[in-house]
Amino acid sequence: MFGYITVNKPELKIKEFEEYRAYYCGLCGALRKRCGLKGQLSLSYDLTFLAMLLTGLYDGRTEDVPCKCIFHPFDKMRRKESQFLYYTADMNILLTYYKCLDDWTDEKKAAEAVYAKSLSRQYRNIKKRYAVKIQAVEENFNTLARAEEAGIDDIDFLSGCFGKILSEIFAYRKDEWEEPVRRMGFMLGRFIYIMDAYEDLEKDRKKGNFNPFKKKADNPGFDEWIRDILTVAASSCAEEFEKLPVIENVEILRNILYSGIWTRYERVLSSKNGKR
Questions:
Q1: Is residue 79 classed as helix, strand or coil in its secondary structure?
Q2: Residues in a beta bridge with 79
Q3: By residue range, what is the domain housing residue 234?
Q4: How far apart are CA 218 and CA 229, in angstroms?
Q5: Burial zone of 129 (CB within 10 Å; 0-12 exposed, 13-18 middle, 19+ buried)
Q6: Which of 102-106, 120-124, 169-173, 190-194 has the lowest mean pLDDT?
Q7: Which of 211, 184, 215, 216 is nearest to 196 (CA)?
Q8: At 71, is the pLDDT very low, low, confident or very high (cuts 50, 70, 90)?
C-alpha cells in the first residue's frame, strides 16, 4: 500500500520539485539514522507528504544539509532535517513492517518475512515511543486482517480500517488541528486501500488471493463506480486540508492532493483499457 501519495511532477515548478526532493532525501537520511540501510530500503514518497504537511502546519524548523546520493552521484543534493522527518521515518518503518507481514500472510513471500524480522527491534522501539498510537494502529491492522481472512468484502468497512490506521499516523499532536488532520488521514487511507485493491484485482484473481472487488468487477459500470468512491475520498481529504493554516509548501501539497494521488490511478486505468 505504498506509492500512491506522490507528486504530479510535470505540474510542479523546478524549485518546487527540488524542495519536495529535499524532504524525500531528508526522510531517507532519517531512516538511515534510525536503522541504517535496512531502514532506507523502506523509503516511500507517501510519508514525505506527511513530513511536509506537519512542517507547514506547525511552522517546524528545518535545516538544509548538503548530501550525496548513490543514485545521483554527480548532482548537488540537499536534504531537510527536522523533528517531523524523524517522526515520519518511524511511521514509515511501522507501515513497512506491517506490509511485510501482510505480504507473508497473503502470498508467503519469504523475503518479506525476513525483512519484517530485521525490522522487529526498530518496531519494538517505535512501540515504546508511541505506545497509545501504536496500540490503536495494531488493533485496526488486526481487525483488517481478520476481516480479509474471513472474506468480508464490504469496501466501506475494509477501507475504513486502513483509514483509521492513517488517521492515527497523521495525528501528530492533540490540539485544535487534530480532528481535520485525522480526517485527512482517514480519507487518504480509504483512497489508498481502494486504489490498492483496484490495482491488484487481476493479479489477485489469477493467484486466488482475497480481493474485495472480485464479486463486483464484472458488474456494469464497475470502473465508473471505483472512480466515484475514489473521488469522494479524495475530495473529502482535500476539503479537510483547506481548513488547515498551512502556508509553507502549500502548492506542493495541493499538487499531491489534487493531482498526484491520481497519477497511479490513470496508469492503472490506461493499462486496463489497453487490455480490452
A1: strand
A2: 65
A3: 155-276
A4: 17
A5: exposed
A6: 102-106
A7: 211
A8: low
> Is residue 38 in some structural domain?
no
Place of cell 487511507: 189
H-helix segments, 58-154: 83-107, 110-118, 120-129, 131-149
Residues in the chain: 276
Residue 218 lies in a domain: yes
Count of beta carbons in the 10 Å neighbourhood of residue 14: 7
Per the structure, the count of domains in the chain is 1
Instruction: Give a yes or no: residue 233 inside a domain.
Output: yes
Mind giving me the DSSP string for 156-181? HHHHHHHHHHHHHHH--SSSTTHHHH
Place of cell 489497453: 274
Structure confidence by residue, pLDDT tens digits, 92-123: 999 888 888 777 676 667 777 788 788 888 88
Taking a C-beta distance cutoff of 8 angstroms, is the pair 147, 157 a contact? yes
How many Å apart are CA 194 and CA 192, to the nearest integer? 6
232-275 pLDDT tens trace: 999 999 999 999 999 889 999 999 999 999 999 998 888 777 65
Count of other CB atoms within 10 angstroms of residue 36: 12
In a domain, 23, yes or no: no
The dihedral built from the CA positions of residue 215, 218, 221 and 224, taken in this order, carries a sign that is: positive
